[in-house]
Automatic annotation (TrEMBL):
InterPro entries registered for this protein in UniProt: HDAC_classIV, HDACs, His_deacetylse_dom, His_deacetylse_dom_sf, Ureohydrolase_dom_sf
Protein family according to the UniProt entry: Belongs to the histone deacetylase family.
Protein name in UniProt: Histone deacetylase
Pfam family, one: Hist_deacetyl
Organism whose genome encodes this protein: Algoriphagus aestuariicola
Entry keyword annotation includes NAD: no
Domain Histone deacetylase per the UniProt entry, residue ranges: 18-280
Key words, A-Z: Hydrolase
Amino acid sequence: MLKVAWSESYAHPLPEGHRFPMEKYSLLPEQLLYEGTLSPSNFFSPELINEKWMLNTHTCGYFARLSALQLSRAEVRAIGFPLSKGLVEREKSIMSGSVQAAVHALSHGIGMNIAGGTHHAFSDRGEGFCLLNDLAITANYLLENQLAKRVLIVDLDVHQGNGTAEIFRNRRDVFTLSIHGEKNYPYRKEKSHLDIGVPDGTVDLEYLMILRQSLPMVVDAFEPDFMIYQSGVDVLASDKLGRLSLSQSGLKERDKTVLALAKNNGIPVMCCMGGGYSRQIRDIVEGHAQVFRLAQELYF
């Protein structure tokens, strides 16, 4: 059975007019239940993991100041969210959800988180709507507990996974692949193990060709025994921040390419959602929903 992490805290309210669409975290599970893709039994509410697993990724000083709501104004401004206890607890819940979804994937092939993909969080700071990095925390958890030996992080959000790249800069047991808008945020890129920047306006055919050439080569060379997939939908043409031109059908083919490759190679995969900023919330929800449909179709 597909297990999906979700908590009511994921839809933590923000001040009116804030541009980050928190409502997608409640609308997405509602849509998946309504259409019958998931049932209530598919969902689990993550239990908070021990903070030592977060400290395996983030510095003690940053984590302590974040938990105590003692970040500087500049640090809060870089994150982009007004800092609050509820927001920090939300982030910790998301970290736990990704870790527990990954553990489920070890025995069922795939596990998913309704949220996550917080790839702009560095070891010592947050950035770009990301306080902590669930991709990195999950990878480190698997490696430290000897549940995996080589973890591949496939980041297909339109923005480079700069925080993840910094955290694993000198690691050989984690491979970071980021396919992103070459001229989009962050304007100062970090160095992933493989970065592929694509130009503004890239359409389905061009994007899928790049993915289908690069991902199998990485898998063959690195031979991962676990994959973490950041499946942001801000690559859509409708996205107001993305600047690429993928259609919903192109997005589905992107996700199918990744999940089918993982399944065909026997690589367990944890899938988290990443960004999405289309003007119409229905475009965001539909973009995210189809990866859950694919998971059911391919794995169960």
